Amino acid sequence: MRIRIGFAVCFLGTLLFLSPVLAGDKWNAELPNIVIVSTGGTIAEKTDPKTGGAVPALSGKELIAAVPGLAEIANVSVQQLCNIDSSQMTPEIWGRLSRKVNELLADDKVDGVVVTHGTDTMAEGAYFLDLTTRSDKPVVFTGAMNDASSANPDGPGNIMNAVIQAASVEARNWGVTVTLNRYINSARAVRKTQTINMQTFMSGEKGYLGYISGKKIYRINERVHRQYLPLPKKLPKVVYIATYAGADGSLVLHAVDSGAKGLVVDGVGAGNVNKAVYEAIKYALSRKVAVIISSSVYYGAVEPVYGGPGGGKTLSDDGCILAGNLKGHKARLLLMLGLANYGNDSEKLKELFDN
Ligand code: ASP
Fold it and tell me: Which residues line the pocket of ligand 1, CB cutoff 6 A?
């Protein structure tokens, strides 16, 4: 008997975990239908009184219960994908998130999607979905810099603004965006720029796509880069490697010998590396590992001006692919999806990065 009760509780628990939770008490046919997919992060964390650290604490249902007035904006339902700090995110979990969001976008009854996510890896997660989803409907990543137990939690306001954006026809055709503190950023250009400040997500030379004031979307910029790569069943191992004065190239050698199919080498300046790293890159290329050269400089594109100590030749002459103005962490995701879709076809991969 006890086993049967146990099974029933698990089964019911699973149903509740997966079944959407509705904000407000009834559907309003006049309003758009928005689904919030909750993954965790500070927005859903509380400070553990025993340790003082932030721990996952709020379900998707509790998140929207803290946002009064949501039901006047849209019919909002919540689905919980996971509840983790985004420092623990992986491309495989983003793959599950992408499948879930693609399903929702394909549903005529869904007008827009909000993803609540930790801010530490939000810029990359949003870019992964920007590459693997294809819809005119708004997909809005949001989160919080202050957790739910702080004196000024920013989560509820960010959820309200994200739902306003996801429900607005003015916000269509922007691809996936990152919206905190009212500012709307393109997933491709956005970076987390401040470790603790609420106005942390910015898009540098690209600028914001727009912002939310009251219940209105102000559209001030458009997407010029949008790419789509079908989500593969398996993601290849691609390693991101920072370089710096005195780097000895050992990280490149280790990545190749531990089975990496691709490398992103974050060069200095406009994409330069020292002699030791250059020799290690040549070893990687000899083992048919795809090598992307990105730059750790905040703005601007990688230029084929630097090569190895031989002078004259550039890294692209040697077979490296330049990342353009795409930053290293995102170049890694594009290379991962590019290798999964095209293999190490340097022409196809070059096209992806020339975009
Ligand atoms: N460590 C948190 C996370 O990335 C930070 C936040 O969400 O603001 O999940």
Answer: 41-42, 85-87, 118-120, 143-145
